[in-house]
Amino acid sequence: MVEDRSLSSRVLDVVVHTSMIFMLVVTLYPVLNVLASSLSSSAANDAGIVTIYPIGLTFDNYRMILEAGKVPKAFVNSVIYTVVGTTVNLLMTSSFAYALSRKHLALRKFYMTVAIIPMYFSGGLIPTFLLVKNLGLYNSMWALILPGAISITNFIIMRTFFQGLPAELEESAALDGANDFQILVKIILPLSKAVFFTIGLYYAVGHWNSWFSAMIYFKDSSKYPLQMILREMIIAANSMKDAASSDDFNTAADIVNLNVKGLKYATLFISMFPMLMVYPFIQKHFIKGVMMGSLKG
Amino acid sequence: MKKRFLSLALAMILMACAFAGCAQKGQQASSVPTAAPTQQAGGEAAPEDKYAKELTITVARRGDSRAVEEDLFSPYVKEKFNIVFEITDINNNDFVTKMNLLLASGEAPDINLDQRPEFMLNEWIQAGYFRGYTQEEIKNLMPNYYAQYTEEEWKSIWPAISYSDGKSYYFPSRRANSIDMAWLYREDIFNKLNLKFPTTTDGLLEVMRTLKKETGKVPYVSANSGDVLWAFTGFLQVFGIPELAPRELSYVDPVSGEFVPYAFTTDTFRQHVIFMNKLYEEGLIWQEFATGTTDQVNATISQGNHMIAWSYPSKIESELNRLSRNENPEASWVWAKDMPSSNPERATYFKANPYYNASGVGFSADASDEVIERYMAFMDWLHTDEGMVFRTYGIEGVTYRKEGNNYVFMDHMTSPLKSEGKTLTNYGFVTGGRQHPNLNEYYYPYLTELEKTFFNRKGYYHFISPVMAYTDEESSELADITTSLQQTAREYYAKFIMGHLDAEDDKEWENYVSTMKKLGLDRFCEIRTTAYERSNR
Amino acid sequence: MHRAEQFTVKNKTDGSLKSRFKNLMIQIYKTRYLQLLALPGLVYFIIFQYIPMYGILMAFQNYKIRNGIWGSEWVWFDQFIKFFKHPYFFRLIRNTVLINVYQIIFVFPIPIIFALLLNEIKNKFYKRFVQTVSYLPHFISLPAIIGMMVMMLSPNGGMVNNIIQALGGEPIYFLTEPGWFRPLYIISDIWTSTGWSAIIYIAALSNVNQELYESATIDGAKRWQKMIHISVPAISPTIIIMLLLNIGKLLSLGAEKVLLLQTPLTYETSEVISTFVYQRGLVYSEYSFSTAVSVFNSVINIMLLYIANTIARKLTETSLW
Fold it and tell me: Testing the interface with A: which of B15, B19, B28, B288 to mutate, by most A Cβ within 10 A?
């Protein structure tokens, strides 16, 4: 491509780079702030002087979290729920979306209507809870996974993707004598890698960040995911006055002179970490996937 | 053909998932209670006959989930009472949501450890979810529990916890410390400036002015961004409004015995607001009281601000000294032996009933009699000396040792004097029961001191929150009104204090009251008064 | 397609109900493998979405947990009337709608502009780096983000006010100014969501046929002209779909962030429907009332979505259905 060296192009470059640098600074700040606070001493955190680099560098917060307490267990729980949940989501969503993407499917309109209505109307907390309980899923990880097995938006993106696959491929394969199964496995699935990664990431992020279902459906706190623990820490730190006025006599003996803010941010960083690591790996597929699904609304 | 196979396979996988879900559930449910596998083997020390059958009791506990590293509690309870506890920890913020779901679905835990009046307790009781007991029944069923209070003390407690049917639906535990809050101040600065802790509002204002002038810092730093009405509860108290008014909204004046249905539109409240505005205008309280976060408050204190506080003396060690010493290593906080009052001749007020905690054990109506009986036996035991030692200190030689007559936590444990180490919750201990009196005597001598200083002091009163039960219509009407009232009260409170509005100006105050009336203040007062009169004879 | 042909073979209908049913049955049989694939989804929707839907009845009741849905008192439209008659009803609607409209005006275009500008970057590594960093705030929990904001906006030594003072201005106590609430809300939205929302546009842009750009270059088009005449049209279907989805939730604004950012002094501008419902829930767990409010929201939202979708279908070729 010929390099455009006109004035307007250079102005554009200036605009582009200024905004990118601005974007970098603005979005990097909170991330570095979390990281720096998690690595700072309790005095520095108390004084509120930590910005983007640690003051009084210490790894105590991470040591404490990893040695004792609930975080390691909760982390493992979160990973399990995310992996299993995303797998179920993908199986359910893709099979439904694939079926509905085929124009000759009988009752297609009916299925579509069935899928769209719950986007706006839902029974709410109590009926859903009763249902989950009656299905025997209370206090089981399936209570976190099955009620949200298909997200309607993700289903729409996937369906649109399958619709957009060039029909010629399928047809020529059929002419070559390939049967339906071969078409699906050899043609559709390889082409769909991208959309699977995309939707998979959307689902995985959803599972990773969710805490409400865990709060509702779990009886044993040993099953809590990481976000639940994080939430406890953040709420506790935000309502210290409340905690102190608790009448539970344990609190008097349990008051621990902790680096509360540091611990909170260390947990926060641990909870962010997997998502930061995952994204670059699937970025390539991810980009293709979103595009193909969304383009042909 | 192949396609059919694939579809079938997909369907089968999904079915398998669902079944696995159910199977897993069953398996976990049975694996959780067997907390003490060693116990069955060594169970030769056979439990008494009445405990022959192993019972699983489900318990709801309010608070954060806890990490149990080594469970010493369960085996002990299993051996002694043949009880296995299944505990659900419910975070404070989620308590109502989750309990409602559990109650609605018939999954209610047998025992609710932290029944608190502000958590829909009245509605749950009316719905028949809990068992009620008369005073006589409690005395017979749990003699040791009953004996933690003298008959004299029962006379003050019973009316506050019993309902119009003469029954109580929760069993409060005794407060470990009858008085645990006081005014605190920076002794080092007060000594340097030759100040005494004030006993009047004028004195308080003077002292705060001097502190500001001499140090250039803000004398009082507190914030509550969640509900600004909680930001200055100490100063509410100074004006004779109970500290818990933001939660209770209504109160009974302990001196006059008069029922005040709504705390935030009275003349007394207006005086408080005018006073707070004066403090704000002169920079004597922190400017950001309505928005500040805990992190910000800590940072501000770390810069040397905050020289007086209304708080728990236990916070001196755990928080205040640490923060203030970031600026001045000499900083030292102490608690004041006096309390300022807007009308010292009349009275000075304390926080709440000194005898019992506002939360207590509740028994589910769905639980079997056997479960309740066995839990009561356990609970009663927790109030014997042996039980209190177990509950407070754990197991001798493992978590505590005896030194003379004192019980002392082992070195690897946290204690009130030491923050590093393990806590009893790490060993699986469940909340409930009563704290052993020796803990305060040994570890918190100041609490005994506090009690001696203030208890039974002439002109010092405790607030007791009145029992109020509503009908269905009343409570849904209240729900309607209360939210708007509280919100508007918060809005005006902040505006009056910050000087956006002038509480001294009759017109602006009237305007506030009439806005509140438009939102249903009168109806609110009517319902509350009726309920109060109905519930209290 | 070969399968489509199979289905049109037996298509002689005589119009009677019975034969139409028979025909349907035949069609279902013909697509039986696909039906089997759709089955788990159908079962899912029926079990987890439709069975609990009886909960909507609560909106017309005075629901009490002890009575359950079948035993609670029917009050029909009382809950709705209670909501409409509330002294703060218009304030709530106004604030909710305004924040959402501002979101559509100010927040919605930013990821698109960001994506377009990012597309102009030639260095792959630089591009990826910016993109990855910009989406990170999406993973920091909201209370932590708001905590940082409150810190920065503090009138006593907050970063923003330090800058204002350095430039000779007076410090502003942002969090207590009703006029600042919406800007703060919008700015923090942009801050935390731009990178994440931009992904979909970045993806769409990366698929534009490069030959289009090249032939435009040969025709003498400037870079910004190519951006406007090639890139923007290429992603406009995505933009329209996203816009439609945004319009379809005009009355649903989550409570969490508003609760964290509002103060009593800004209730005038910050109280929205969801926070109102949330506060009532805190005091008395009013399931009926909150269901009624959400039914009201859904009805309005569906109407808006329907109108917007119709307009979109008329004006462009893109629409949700």
Answer: B28
pLDDT of residue A233: 75
Six token digits for residue C50: 């439709």
Q: Compute the nearest-CA separation of A180 from chain B (Å).
A: 6
Q: How far apart are CA B453 and CA B444, in angstroms?
A: 15
Residue C231 structural domain: 77-315
Question: B494: which chain C residues are within 8 Å (Cβ-Cβ)?
Answer: 176, 263-265
Which residues of chain B form CATH 3.40.190.10? 47-175+357-435, 182-350
In chain A, which among 43-82 make CB contacts under 8 A with chain B?
43, 45-49, 68-70, 73
Domain B182-350, architecture per CATH: 3-Layer(aba) Sandwich (3.40)
CA separation for the pair A86, A78 (Å, rounded): 12
CB proximity under 8 Å: B 103-142 to C: 103-104, 120, 123, 127-129
Specify the number of domains making up chain C: 2
B293 touches chain C (CB under 8 A): yes
* CA angle, C39 then C302 then A205, to 5°: 60
Residue percentage of chain A with pLDDT more than 70: 82
Q: What is the DSSP letter of C75?
A: -
Mutate to test the interface with B, among A255, A260, A264, A267 (most CBs of B within 10 A): A255
> pLDDT for B490-499, tens place per residue?
999 999 999 9
**pLDDT tens digit string along A121-168?**
888 888 999 999 999 999 999 999 999 999 988 888 788 777 777 777
Tens of pLDDT, residue by residue over C111-139, are 999 999 998 888 888 888 888 888 888 88
pLDDT higher than threshold 50 for residue B391: yes
Report CB contact under 8 Å: A224, B416. Answer: no
3-state SS of chain A is: CCCCCCHHHHHHHHHHHHHHHHHHHHHHHHHHHHHHHHCCCHHHHHHCCCCCCCCCCCCHHHHHHHHCCCHHHHHHHHHHHHHHHHHHHHHHHHHHHHHHHCCCCCCHHHHHHHHHHHHCCCCCHHHHHHHHHHCCCCCCCHHHHHHHCCCHHHHHHHHHHHHHCCHHHHHHHHHCCCCHHHHHHHHHHHHCHHHHHHHHHHHHHHHHHCCHHHHHHCCCHHHCCHHHHHHHHHHHHHCHHHHHCCCCHHHHHHCCCCCHHHHHHHHHHHHHHHHHHHHHHHHHHHHHHHHHHHHCC
Q: How many whole angstroms from its chain centre is CA B295? A: 22
**pTM of the entire structure?**
0.84
Token pair belonging to A279:
């994204």
Chains contacting chain C through 3 or more C-beta pairs under 8 A: A, B
Cβ–Cβ of A146/C199 closer than 8 Å?
Answer: no
Same domain, yes or no, for C61 and C84?
A: no
What residues of chain B, 287 to 346, have a C-beta less than 8 Å from chain A? 293-296, 298-299, 301-303, 311-312, 314-315, 318, 322-323, 326
Q: Would residue C320 count as lying in a domain?
A: no
Domain B47-175+357-435 -> CATH class:
alpha beta
Q: Which residues share a beta bridge with B460?
A: B348
Distance, in angstroms, between C229 CA and closest chain A CA?
A: 15
Q: What is the ipTM of this complex?
A: 0.83
Which pairing describes strands B259-260 and B460-462: parallel, antiparallel, or unpaired? unpaired
- Is residue C166 within 8 Å of residue C196, measured between CB atoms? no
| Min distance C169 CA to chain A CA atoms (Å) | 23
Please, which residues have CB within 8 angstroms of residue A239's CB and are 6 or more apart in sequence?
A: B92, B226
Co-location of C283 and C192 in the same domain:
yes
Which residue in B291, B483, B518 is closest to C150 by CB distance? B291
Does the beta carbon of B91 lie under 8 angstroms from any beta carbon of chain C? no
